[in-house]
Amino acid sequence: MTDTINLPNSLRSQPDSSGHFGAFGGRYVAETLMPLILELDKVYRTAKADPAFDAEFAELLRSYVGRPNPLYYAGRLTEMLRDKAAAGKGAKIYLKREELNHTGAHKINNCIGQALLARRMGKKKVIAETGAGQHGVATATVAALFGMECKIFMGAKDVERQRPNVFRMKLLGAEVIPVTSGSQTLKDAMNDALRHWVSNVHDTFYIIGTAAGPHPYPELVRDFQSIIGKETRAQMMEAEGRLPDMLIAPVGGGSNAIGMFHPFLDDPEVAMIGVEAAGEGLDKKHAASLAGGASGILHGNRTYLLQDEDGQITEAHSISAGLDYPGIGPEHSWLHEIGRVRYLPVTDDEALASFQTLAKLEGIIPALESAHAIAAAEQIAPTMDADKIIVVNLSGRGDKDIFTVADALGVEM
Amino acid sequence: MNRDRLSSRFAACKAQGRAALITFMTAGDPDIAATPAILDALVAGGADIIELGMPFTDPMADGPAIELANLRSLGSGTKTKHIFALAADFRARHPDVPLILMGYANPMLVRGADWFADQCRIAGVDGVICVDVPPEEDAEIGPALRAAGVHLVRLATPTTDATRLPAVLDGASGFLYHVAVAGITGKQQAAQASIEIAVRKLKAATDLPIAVGFGVRSPEQAAAIGRVADGVVVGSAIVDIVGSHGDAAAPFVQDFVAALSGALTTQAQETAA
Ligand SMILES: Cc1ncc(COP(=O)(O)O)c(C=O)c1O
């Protein structure tokens, strides 16, 4: 899978064999799931070392997902920001076009990889949690592709705000199960997916949608998503003959961001910004677990969480369903603590503004998740010299969000 | 001595030729004020060992009954400090009845494992079951509890095979909790035959008492399991009663527990005869 040699002191050699990224990660699951998780680890190690697995993965990414997707120079966005910047300022902005993948987001990269693992393990049923519905659609898609039975757990609130994706999943043959417990969003969908899994371990594979959960999920999701960073690296060398100065990606659980960042972690000249959803603001309802949370244990891993002093999980809020989660993948918690990646909060309103800006200036309607990263780029690019280069991960397209955005803007559709 | 309460209770039950009755309720369900009366009803009905659930916002291993109990408790304002106060008061009222805290890692570890273990010791808690800490993640909570003289009760499940069992037993104490179904707490029931096979295997591997739980709802089932196991755990069925009767639940809980206890005793007498 990975073709890199891990140098001593490499930031790319995490996690350790027990799944820890520094103080984070691990395998905090019920005993019933432990044997399965250990088996998954074994199967994954074998697959990772098997060129045939890598070849099949690469071929599906090429012929089915449509990779490589382009690295696009966003000229009009760059110029607009330069106009507002001081003389000589305004970094060049490139977009990594994950939104052009089949199913419209980066999620499919991971789903192809995990479906291949499910097949290796002889599982014919897959389940997944979904927030925005992008991971649900991607899972339903690979289930159709591999002829597997598929159940998608989705918070009832998200079923409401992501209706187009709910219908897509059904068209693809999946059963969508609305989850009415708790905050009725992504975290509760994950609870119910875990409950279903623990009750059906013998024949069911859980396709986790982000770089979180018990080991080895954070690692394998990262590895499958690392295609984003690997392509970016090669494409940037071709376009500019050098590495970018900064990478910016939105962070829900953190899969698109870690996929973009990981191949660059050992290049100190490349700065990295993960963008957390600040919702209505960090002093109000938000989903920024690094900026506003503390270390804790949820959904199989130790990581930063939104929680109260008793360790009860507090509700997250973001206009973007895909970022509306009170935790973050453990590798991000570690990268935050060692200072390798900087994490910035962006509010609902800022994301909404950038959603429209990108549509008008570049003819690209971004996912609300991705619009958070665009907003961060709009804030940072004007402070950098004009010869600097930023790559923003455009993790998904915004078709799914048009109802939410219309609603937020008070537009009748 | 904390350690003695659990083992003396299992020994006493064994001397009577019956399995120990282990009953579960969620602390603070429906609220903190109503909890002592329900705990007393469990004891009055004949429970040998009490499992007190620490509520958590995200009880991933629980079915709807206990999940709702968790939410009722948190909704009525239950805090961790109230749970330790409940435990300490229980210990004062019932000096000999073993008390186990059962719950999830995050509320237990949020102030550090040593803090939690210390609070358990001070409140007279005999053991802890942490649902989402498998042996692989023992390093934090395990040593802290052992140092405080509090039992760490481990879970063995239908997926725990022979190669894995030694890891589960390593560091387990108090008793071994056999989770009878691969699943969540609630209504799903295991076949008696599979329980018997599992308990036999576990007994061959450890001298710890074996308690069986998950899906045990009726006196008949409890009696059948009591024939082979050292303890029988009943949870959701009691929590359902609290769910329907709220702060008036104590007498109903007591009646139900008395029926469970009666069935275990009758079964023991029949076996002896
Ligand atoms: C387009 C898009 N971007 C980002 C995310 C956030 O997830 P992650 O942080 O795992 O990339 C989602 C999640 O649904 C998404 O759909």
Summarize the structure.
Chain A is an alpha/beta fold and 413 residues long. Chain A is built from 16 helices and 14 strands. Chain A folds into two domains: 20-63 and 107-222, Rossmann fold (3-Layer(aba) Sandwich), CATH 3.40.50.1100; 68-104 and 226-408, Rossmann fold.
Oligomerization status of the protein chains: heterodimer
Total helices of chain B: the number is 12
Number of spatially distinct domains of chain B: 1
Number of domains of chain A: 2
Distance between the termini of chain B: 36 Å
Query: Approximately how much beta-strand content do the residues of chain B carry?
Result: 5-15%
Describe this structure in words.
- The complex is a heterodimer of chains A (413) and B (273).
- Chain A is 42% helix and 17% strand.
- By secondary structure, chain A is α/β, with parallel strands linked by helices.
- Chain A folds into two domains: 160 residues, Rossmann fold, CATH 3.40.50.1100; 220 residues, Rossmann fold, CATH 3.40.50.
- In chain A, helix 5 packs parallel to helix 7.
- The longest helix of chain A is centred in the first third of the chain and has 15 residues.
- Chain B has one domain: TIM Barrel (Alpha-Beta Barrel), CATH 3.20.20.
- The longest helix of chain B has 23 residues.
- Chain B has a nine-stranded parallel sheet with strand order 5-4-3-2-1-9-8-7-6.
- Classes of the chains: A alpha/beta (413), B alpha/beta (273).
- Chains A and B meet through strand 2, helix 1, helix 8 and strand 11 of A and helix 3, helix 5 and strand 6 of B.
- Bound molecules: pyridoxal-5'-phosphate (PLP).
